[in-house]
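Recall the central idea of this unit: under ordinary conditions, the amino acid sequence of a chain determines the structure it adopts. In this exercise we apply that idea directly, starting from the sequence alone.
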Amino acid sequence: MIDKKIVEIFMKEGIEPVLSVPCNLLAGILRKIERTPIRHIPVCREEEGIGIAAGAALAGGKPLLLMQNSGLGNSINALMSLTRLYKLPLFLLMSHRGGPGEKISAQIPMGAAAPDLLRTLGINFITIKTAHDLHGLQKLIRKTYALQEINAAFLARELWNEAK
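Accordingly, the structure predicted from this sequence is:
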C-alpha cells in the first residue's frame, strides 16, 4: 500500500527517470515502478545515479535517486560539484537505515550521521514515518523541481512497519 502511494506521487509529479541503488526496504517501490511507464535506471553507485540525473535534468526531466541513506556519503562530492553547482534539480528518496530496530550494525553510524550531513550541505529534507506524511513528500518533490533544488526524504523503518 505504501509502495503504491509513493509511486502514485511519482506519476502525479512527472518524475522520470528514477535511478536506484538496490535496497531491500525499497524493493516494493521498485517492483511498483516496473509496472508503470516511468523509466527506471538501476545504477551500481550513487555517484553514477547523480551523473545520469544531471543529464536527465539538463534534458528537461525530473530525476529522482532512490537509495539507502548509507549511500549519501558516496554521493556528496557529485551532489555539490555537479548538481548544486549547476543548479540542477534532484530529489533523493532514501530508506533510513541504522535507526531503532536495525539488524545490521554497520548501518548505524551512517544512519545517525545522515540527517546532519544533509543539514550541513544545506539540503532540505523530511522524514516519512507514516502514510499521513506522504502529503509532505509530494509537496517537497514539487518544490524541488519548481525551484531547481536538491531536496530529500528519509523513509523511516516505522513506515514499513505501518504497512504490515
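The two ends are 9 Å apart (CA to CA).
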